[in-house]
Specification:
There is one protein chain. The protein has 2 domains: 117 residues, Beta-Lactamase (2-Layer Sandwich); 196 residues, 2-Layer Sandwich (Heat Shock Protein 90). The chain starts with 12 loop residues before the first helix and ends with a strand. The protein is elongated and about 95 Å long. Helix 5 packs antiparallel against helix 6. It has 333 residues and is of the alpha+beta class.
Length: 333
């Protein structure tokens, strides 16, 4: 144990030693020399051994540099040395390595200890593990970037929906109904994504949000594995589901009391990688038909899904209803 002379009088050094030993933060005391092989550790408290896995006798006489590794950034270390070379205290962060090889982010405050003549004799470093805090801050930064990106995309989507709805509507009343429904669907999807910590949406959840209001007497059947979609897939796919539901209610199976809608999906591994395939099947409704004119719903299925998520869309009119098959590549997602 190094005995540091305290400038104040009347303070029991045994009390100071007990306080340092009991401290929750890691404390290192090193020699003053900054050039390699120094500075040398002369004391490490129990909190340091708990943080790093090294016992005090394993670190005394070594430079704190041994805690650094391949992923330790150099700029914070260079800033630390520059400040200490001027005799000033320094607060910073760096990535360190434990004895078992695991890493942790450490925040340190290094202050000089001076003798009666003002010469620096030692450095005292108080260290705190801030790994969880840094991870939280990094997640927050990522989420802010994601939110900024999503807001830009959402505004562009709203503009596209507005323009397309205007082109495909014959009356203001028709425009109002269609535009409101599409915006409500878009908002609902974003709510599902935002509520999830991973910023994803469940495909079955997207389906139920559109189809559950029409599921009286078991006329809706959904069958597939649990599948979570990132926002770049969830938004265009949910818009497609909204258009298919709207078309089924107005012109297809859901416009008939006995009509049914069956949606099945699976994740497949093919020569081109993983693929998400889903089939929308309408049964026992009126004669199958797509929207009566080339409206936004048809354009969305044939263009937006293809352009935004590289989907393959196949539209067929079976004898008992509309059947639409969509294949979405999942590579990189």
């Amino acid at each position: 144990m190094v005995r540091v002379v305290c400038g104040a009088t009347g303070i029991d050094l045994r009390l100071l030693e007990a306080a340092v030993e009991a401290a929750g933060e890691a404390i290192l005391i090193t020699t003053a020399d900054l050039d390699e092989p120094g500075p040398s550790i002369v004391y490490a408290n129990p909190a340091f051994t708990r943080l790093t896995g090294y016992e005090a006798h394993e670190v005394v006489g070594r430079s704190p540099r041994f805690l650094q590794g391949p992923l330790t950034d150099r700029p914070p270390l260079e800033a630390t040395r520059a400040s200490l070379s001027e005799g000033a205290a320094f607060q910073g962060e760096a990535l360190n390595y434990r004895k078992d090889g695991s890493t942790y982010m450490v925040e340190w405050l290094i202050t000089p200890v001076r003798d009666a003549d003002g010469r620096i004799t030692h450095w005292v470093s108080a260290q705190r593990n801030v790994t969880e805090r840094r991870a939280f801050e990094d997640r927050q930064t990522m989420m802010v970037r994601e939110l900024h990106h999503r807001v830009k995309n959402t505004l562009a989507t709203v503009q596209a929906v507005l323009n397309a709805t205007m082109r495909s509507s014959l009356t203001m009343a028709e425009f109002g109904r269609a535009f409101t429904g599409r915006i409500v669907s878009l908002a609902r999807t974003h709510a599902l994504i935002t509520e999830d910590e991973a910023q994803v949406a469940c495909f079955e959840g997207l389906l139920r949000a559109e189809l559950d209001p029409y599921n009286e007497n078991g006329r809706i059947r959904l069958d597939g594995p649990k599948l979570r979609l990132p926002s770049d897939l969830a938004v265009p796919i949910s818009m497609a589901l909204h258009e298919l539901t709207t078309n089924a209610v107005r012109h297809g199976a859901l416009a008939h009391p006995g009509g049914r809608v069956v949606v099945t999906w699976t994740v497949e591994d093919g020569s081109d990688g993983r693929c998400f395939a889903w089939v929308w099947n309408e049964h026992d409704g009126p004669p199958p038909t797509l929207p009566t004119r080339e409206g936004f719903g048809t354009r969305l299925l044939n263009r937006i899904l293809t352009a935004q998520v590289s989907a393959q869309v196949d539209v067929a009119q079976d004898e008992d209803g509309l059947r639409i098959t969509v294949r979405v590549p999942l590579n990189g997602r």
